[in-house]
Amino acid sequence: MALPGNAALMDLYAKLFGQVWATDWKAGLTAPFVEESAKGAVFLLMLGLAPLVIRTVYDGLIVGAYVGLGFQVLEDMLYGQNAAYANFGVDQVGAVLHTFVIRSLSGIASHAMYTAIFAAGIIYLVGTRAQPRRVGRGLLLMVSAMLVHGLWDSMLALANDNGFVVTTLMVGITVVSFVVLFAALRWGAYRERGWLYDVLAPEVANGTIAESEFTALTGTPSRRRKDRRAAIKGRADGVSRRREKHILTASLDLAHDLSESRGAETPEVAHSRAEIQRLRTR
User: Where are the chain's structural domains?
Assistant: First the structure.
């Protein structure tokens, strides 16, 4: 979908604004709209096929990242092929390896990240059974993904071929990409931890999990590290710091098993509770 879309829009830019302007700006003003729309369409298809699997913002981030990664792998193959054809096919191996190294080093903040953010925005925009619609937040994430994508593809034009400026822009755009990604993760975490709170609250009442551990697992993201340190510091007598960390991990396993069983007593739930008790007493 993206290849013919990119070609058509780039041809229009050349006709409307001239070949020189199009050479500088066509990538940055084409790929963000065409490619993110194409990848978003694939994500929407998967969302429609598996609405019980893709439900939360976290699901959108993970599935979107894999959609973007698939796109990126195919794009890298095409870039490698074009590099082999360049210079009349001279030194094809060297040209392909050079392209592979450059694309690998610059691929940290690339399609996988753009589409993860874009897909999280789609989850907010359309809403699911587990995530009510948040149109403003969804549009903000989708526009942010396209903006970062556009800035990345426009680096050479923005820097006017200045190597230092290109490097500075590359680092800055990568940092901004991670900031947006962490914002999406933070927004998604509040709802996820709300569910975790509901699932584990009865386990505090029956003594399986201590109050400090419950707070460390379900508290706000901004206090996560502080609450975790408090839980480890206030551990029961005879429990090492290492074992307390394992108890916190085992408590998350218990939450998973309780969710899978919809709160019913199953062998998996009993095993998870017994594992927590074993860690406390061994």
Answer: 2-188, 206-281
